[in-house]
TrEMBL record:
It comes from Nocardioides aromaticivorans. Gene3D superfamilies: Aldolase class I. The keyword Lyase applies. It comes from the Bacteria. GO terms for molecular function: (R,S)-4-hydroxy-2-oxoglutarate aldolase activity; 2-dehydro-3-deoxy-phosphogluconate aldolase activity. This is 2-dehydro-3-deoxy-phosphogluconate aldolase. Its EC number is 4.1.2.14. Homotrimer. Keywords: Carbohydrate metabolism, Lyase, Schiff base.
Length: 208
């Protein structure tokens, strides 16, 4: 079975999920996260500049663990790794997407929100996955319930998590980290307020 090393779940307590609209913001946002104590980023493939942003961060902020999120097609998995992504995250799971992410050779977190999907990921030989959309799909109580029959499955819950609710997830034995966009608010990025992003990152880094 495929093993993910190093474990994507154990790099930082809060994985910054980042949307970059303006390519020029990519490198300063990555540097602000590193400065705040969160040397990891899940850059989402939701904007036209996302692949260029991955390339820019890979070239200029090599100390950050760089991942690509919102991987929804096999082609995106390949393109993200070619652009420098060292790990991949998908919001959900299909057999083709799982096979494509496995074929890239980089660690990845397939998205799950049901026990059957968790079983499909375990069947593929993986034990680490995303739980999305976390708050809407049952939140921390859901993960606590899943730990009964499937204690080997470990999660990065993402979707609707806030600084106030992160700790309830992080205290669970089957949660490695949580993910969220709250560290990099769109208005802070638009204003070039890198200090605010560093401060939010520092607060999140202290959550565990
Ligand atoms: C994701 O793709 O993981 C979600 O969009 C996270 O967004 P949120 O933290 O704003 O819910």
């Amino acid at each position: 079975p495929e093993t993910s090393s190093p474990s994507v779940l154990d790099i930082v307590p809060v994985m910054p999920v980042v949307v970059i609209d303006d390519l020029a913001a990519a490198v300063p946002v990555a540097r602000a996260l590193v400065d705040g104590g969160l040397p990891a980023i899940e850059l989402t493939l939701r904007t036209p500049v996302a692949l260029d942003a991955l390339r820019a961060i890979a070239a200029e902020v090599p100390e950050i663990t760089l991942g690509a999120g919102t991987i929804t097609t096999p082609a995106q998995a390949e393109a993200a790794v070619a652009a420098g992504a060292g790990f991949l995250v998908s919001p959900g799971l299909t057999p083709d997407l799982l096979a494509a992410m496995l074929a890239t050779g980089v660690p990845f977190l397939p998205g799950t929100s049901t026990v059957s999907e968790v079983l499909a990921v375990l069947e593929a030989g993986l034990t680490e996955m995303k739980f999305f959309p976390a708050e809407a799909a049952g939140g921390a109580p859901y993960l606590k319930s899943v730990a009964g029959p499937l204690p080997q499955a470990r999660f990065c819950p993402t979707g609707g998590i806030r600084p106030e609710t992160a700790a309830s997830y992080l205290s669970l034995p089957n949660v490695g980290c949580v993910g969220g966009t709250w560290l990099t608010p769109a208005d802070a990025i638009a204003a070039g307020d890198w200090e605010r992003i560093s401060k939010l990152a520092a607060e999140a880094a202290a959550l565990r």
